[in-house]
Design brief:
Number of helices: 14
Shape: globular
């Protein structure tokens, strides 16, 4: 699963598909160090509480486009909150970045800032993702070894970002990932240590744990991407669609989060269709093609309603059938607290049992859906997405054994270079997700890492819950 996000309309994260994804994926499906890619259907059906995922809201199609307002170079000062300028006249002419506004002021001592809350508990997985380098630290050679599959190298020196592109990613994944990073740097200007990282924009993780075990094993390459699983060591990072996905008309997450809440409240849970629901492109993964076998037929009804999504056709018709906020009409159930586990090797029977259980335990199923919705609304806000990015990169930079420098082939990265030359939905989404001012508080306070005992308890509790559901499912089919 991903860190977070929305690969497709109807995709269950992981995000991430996708933060985390990811955030929710990490919280629910993560093993000792990462989210899963191979267990898509462990939470295959947030059966209707679509607040847990991000897809498309076509109601924004044709929305009024924002124009870039050229801010004066002078920055209006506030004791801690500083307006962020965006001067496109200079950016369009030179394709270069202005003097960083973060260098024009001195932030007051952090102790004088308003107190920050403790980050959500899933931030603790940052420590786990970086654990492979805790003892050795990170060397230049390790970073370079991650270049093999990377789309780009990002270097941050003295608060300024520099980009070296190796190969273009699919669609605008790289563009909006970098846009999100540029916004985070403006949100907390000058706060990150110098660092260098390699980023791979492909979904599947590639750093296999088994290759870095044993007494003679070398340290793994620190490679960032949107997802990982229990058998890999890729460092999971929030996916691009938090800031927009123009190719399939996905608006930035801050807007969608509000629209999804409204859509979820439009139909009472008790009045929703008593079926599992999924909509997406089944051709991108074998596990999705396998899922489509669970659709109702004249011979068997597995209580699932599964729909293929043709994105080319949708784009031609203005995404009229892809409004997520209009599709919160099916019930939701996930295991014990947030989600309901679906067997990877027997999806259809597992889905039918899950739906039947929910229909016979409506209050319990509704409570699970409510808990999942509240998690998304309260702990997956953009504030926490930015703070997760900040803390991940901050902890990563602490491991460095060398001083990063700007590569000769790199160009400076800033909002002016990216937004001023952008066009269409790409530009519109950048402007919609652009931060107007620095954060007037510190990032949330990082929780401590898991101690070995608490991590074992966490994983055992999760395993026991899934095992219990498996026993219920077995008993259910034995009776039938």
């Amino acid at each position: 699963m991903r860190w977070i996000g929305n690969q497709e309309l109807g995709e269950m994260f992981w995000h991430g598909s996708r933060i985390y994804t990811g955030i929710l994926n990490r919280q629910l499906n993560k093993g000792p160090a990462r989210t899963r890619t191979t267990v898509l259907f462990v939470i295959v059906l947030f059966l209707g509480v679509f607040i847990s995922v991000r897809w498309i809201d076509d109601s924004i199609r044709g929305a009024s486009k924002q124009k870039i307002v050229e801010n004066p170079i002078a920055i209006h000062k506030h004791p801690q909150r500083i307006e962020i300028p965006l001067n496109c006249s200079a950016g369009n002419r030179t394709r270069s970045c202005p003097v960083s506004f973060s260098e024009t002021f001195q932030r007051e001592n952090d102790d004088s800032s308003p107190s920050s809350p403790v980050c959500p508990d899933y931030f603790r997985w940052i420590h786990e993702d970086l654990r492979p380098w805790k003892e050795t630290g990170i060397t230049k050679e390790m970073v370079e070894s991650a270049r093999k599959t990377a789309n780009f190298r990002l270097v941050i020196v003295k608060g300024r970002a520099y980009l070296e592109t190796f190969k273009k990613s699919f669609q605008t994944r790289d563009v909006f990932t970098l846009w999100g990073i540029s916004q985070m740097l403006n949100r907390y200007p000058g706060r990150l240590p110098d660092l260098e990282l390699m980023f791979d924009c492909v979904d599947w993780p590639v750093v296999q744990t088994r290759h870095y075990r044993g007494p003679n094993a070398t340290a793994p390459p620190p490679l960032f991407r949107y997802c990982g699983d229990d058998s890999t060591l890729d460092i999971v990072f929030p996916d691009w669609s938090f800031w927009g996905w123009p190719e399939v008309n996905v608006r930035p997450w801050e807007y969608l989060l509000k629209k999804l809440k409204e859509g979820n409240e439009r139909t009472k849970w008790i009045d929703r269709e008593p079926y599992a629901y999924w909509k997406g492109n089944p051709h991108v993964a074998s596990t999705r093609q396998d899922l489509m076998k669970c659709n109702a037929s004249d011979k068997q009804d597995w209580y699932a309603r599964l729909y293929k999504q043709d994105w080319i056709r949708e784009s031609q018709k203005g995404f009229k059938q892809s409004d997520l906020s209009q599709q919160c009409t099916h019930r939701s159930l996930q295991p014990v607290h947030h989600y309901w586990p679906i067997r990877e090797d027997d999806k259809c029977r597992s889905i039918k049992f899950a739906v039947d259980w929910g229909n016979h335990h409506k209050q319990k199923a509704q409570a699970i859906g409510k808990a999942a919705s509240e998690f998304i609304q309260e702990e997956l806000k953009m504030d926490y997405v930015y703070d997760y990015m900040f803390h991940l990169l901050n902890e990563y930079a602490k491991l460095f054994k060398y001083k990063p420098t700007v590569p000769e082939q790199a160009r400076e990265l800033c909002p002016e270079v990216m937004a001023c030359s952008a066009k269409g939905l790409e530009k519109e989404f950048m402007m919609d997700s652009r931060l107007k001012a620095t954060k007037d508080t510190n990032p949330c306070t990082m929780p401590p890492p898991f101690d070995p005992q608490s991590l074992r308890v966490f994983l055992k509790r999760k395993a026991n819950s899934i095992h219990q559901v498996g026993l219920w499912e077995k008993k259910y089919w034995e009776k039938l």
